[in-house]
Protein 1
Amino acid sequence: MTTKKITKKIIQEEVKKIPEKAKKEGWVLTFDKDEGIFFYSPNVIPSDTELHQITDEYSIYFDKNLNPRGVMIECYGNNFVKHHPEFEKITKDLFGERNKDEIKVVDPNKEKNKEAITFKALLEKTLITEVCLDGYKMVI
Amino acid sequence: MGLTHMKCCLETVDYENNKVIFTEAQRQQKVAKRPELRDDNFINGRLKQTINCPNFVYQDCDKPNSRKAFYLQEYVVNGRPRYTKVVVDFKKKPQFVITAYRPDYVKERSKTNLLYGHDN
């Protein structure tokens, strides 16, 4: 369990650190097509972390010092992509159709693939924009 | 290989007395992104209890016609509940745990049908 009191300002600051942290720790893009859940996280999300819902769209695994250790988007295709249509084509291009119940991992740090880099940038921008919206009501 | 012949980390029954299993292979498939599943005490404790006696059960958001999301409220801190959530495929025989984790939010609320219990 986190030892810090969670406030809107702390969450906003921590979400803004995700791009730097992701680059440093080599976070990967993982689409679990079977569950319809998307992760942006290290290959293995560390133990001793706890999941906190940030907005209606996504949750973050935080460690006890409230460092973000992974992002999770539930109902990715049925909800998130519907609300963010800019992800529809790039998700298909990068992860393929959802006709197989597979877990597909794309490493944007290794792939020279332009789509992986674009996807990562778009996702990071979306995470930060949503949590910093003036009208954003913290779910936590 | 049929589900009944696979090595299981949990075999139990749900609130309607249906057999539910969690295979070791399925656990290993999910464990990288689900730190909760590395803990045997969680699997044999909260996860099992959630299948046996959930507070409420929703249709799954992603596959509402074949999966259910079982919830058991663990505790409330500063007005915020913490749940154990277990996703079960009920079309397979025996029923089959897909994954489990500990969210602080009910994603299915207002999105799918409540199948059992009360979600206050």
Protein 2
Amino acid sequence: MKDKRGNLQLTESVLVMFFVLVIIAIGLVVFYRFQLNSLHDYENEYREKQIMSMLMTLPNELGYTFMGKSENAIDTSRLFSFGNDYGFKTIILEEVYPKSSEAVDCTRENYPNCNRFIVYDKTSQRFENKLVESRPVSLYYPLEDRFKAGKLIIEWHY
Amino acid sequence: MALLNKHLQRGQVETIGLVVIVILLLFIGIFALSFSVKDEEVDENILTLKANALRSSLLKTSICNITIKDEIGNCIDNSPECFSDCPQFNLVVEGILKDSLENEGYSFKSGNVKMGNCADKITSVSDVVNGQKIEIAVCRR
């Protein structure tokens, strides 16, 4: 009789241990997934912050100043000598107005009769995804002394 | 005595079970909270940047020998310089606003002229031309 009761208690303890272990295992899996997700979130947030910081600072780096005063516009004549390394990104400046039917990439030869500047382009076949963000900018053409409406587009390849 | 011990043991196991359940519920609560309270600060900053950049870029743009800002002033007096009439000029402004933004909507207000519509928006720093306020905003995503 005592043996039977002992066996029953042992089985009960084993079952309890088993369920506790199952709960711990599920908890670990959930925790791991949560950590992984939050890591991806941090990664995305980091990219978004970096892109935002670039959108804010790039127009100043290439900015047009008149008598030392910033004109809040990008000097398009400076775009051909842009030599910074920004990692795997593509930086494009696109003219919005006057609007053209087709995009003509700017080179030293056809400038200013063009409407798109590929300022920086570094890609790799390893990356399949890209984060794209843009902001409106004013483009200054010193040869014509005119401001045109444009768009700064940054593509982050990852 | 043995019966009392057994009762005590069962009571302890039940208490431990209860504690485990409470801890599990706590964890679930923390997970749910961290998902619901998401940081939207970056999004907000990008939209503010876009709204101000849009205003600056639009008003500075050259048309014939003047800027869009000047032409808005001319249209307030109903005497456009670069266009035959103000509705034609408004179409150009609308085109620039639309093409300058990728996925966002916009709202433009200058006197009686209203373009675009936003339920919830982030407004740029406003500009005053001929005593009339120009308000440009980017819609929240």
Protein 3
Amino acid sequence: MAGGVVDPLPSEARAYQGQRAGVVTRTVAAAVDGLVVVGLALVGYLVWAVLRFMVDPLHFTFPQLSWAVGLAATLAVLVGYLTATWSISGRTYGDLLMGLRVLGPWGGMLRPPGALLRALACVLLPIGLLWCAVNPRNRSLQDVLLRTSVIYDWRPRAARNGRGAS
Amino acid sequence: MPAPTEWVIGQDHPSRTMRSRHGRADDRNVESGRRAAVEVTLGASLLASDAVVAIAGRARAVAAPVAGALPRAPVPKVVAPSRLLGSLRRRGSMQLLRGGTELSALLDRVVPLLLEQLLRRMELTELIIRYVDLDTVAARLDVDAVARRLDLDAVLDRVDVDAVARRLDVEAVLDRLDLTDVVLRRVKLDVLVQAVLDRVDLAGLAEQVIKEVDLPEIIRESTGTMASGTVRDARMQAILADEAVSRVRARLRLRRGSRPDALGPGSRPVELPAQRGPED
């Protein structure tokens, strides 16, 4: 805890702070992130439709997208969402909800290139995330390749040394 | 020699009848009469002794005519009875006085010697302990009077207080004392606390504590961390599910003969990259 002796965390959760998260927590966080991204994609679709309506309201129809384009657009939103959140705060909304934080190879925050690489790896090979259920150290395939870690960190801010907790 | 007391046997003084009505005057008269009787008796004894000596002298004169050169003892003249009694009393009084003086001198010489021999042959301490009720004696002692007669300043001047203090086992004294009880009974805690509070800058102390603890940061973290009990429960449930998965994984690895997981119940915390380095 930064500068204080009073730990606001519940006592039952303190022992887990700083440990690598397991597959269940990470899957729940990923599911939340998926919903968030789907929502963002829908919002983007609606914005695009509104823009088209404003440009030509007489001939307005909802944009027709193929599955491939829609999937590609959604994945692109997902990559951008993951890259931005990991590089800015180290956690997506799903991570924030589940008390997780993504750390870089040295235990600090991921930089944008590292966050982009990890986001691409997650999007292109999502099954690799399940590897943490098999790995003795709770490391996914992306974590093994990029030397990243996902830890329990219920505190709102990252520790100054880059770790969520000891 | 003091003059003998005036006393006339068989003759009542006119005022005697009146004084006899008072007990003290009678007692004094009786005592004086007894003394006069003793003196008269003693004087008569001396006169009889003189008479015996005179008769012996006459007999010696008859028996030894040739011994006319021997001194003759005085022969009392026939006197009136009152004069005879006065003379006898004077002689007895003088003899009593002489005998008292000689007896006193004799006692002065004998009593110390006798007492010393007695004390040497007796265990005086044992006798005192056995026969004297020391508690009663002590109860009758006026200790305050004794203390008042003591010159405590002179006594204290002769005492080396530093030496006495060096020999004191203060730790032992403190062990025997219930200091907490002494403080609770003897110390006015309200006054003490008030005095302490007066000397403490409570506002400054509170400000320093808040600064050290970083209370605003704690509040921020508390509100951010404890935003929702539902979220906290969801997180804990997920963590418990992670541990369950880790246990299953560890069990499977044990069946396969592999090393147990680093995770799982009772396992050590996971080392972070910052602790291990990039090569891990």
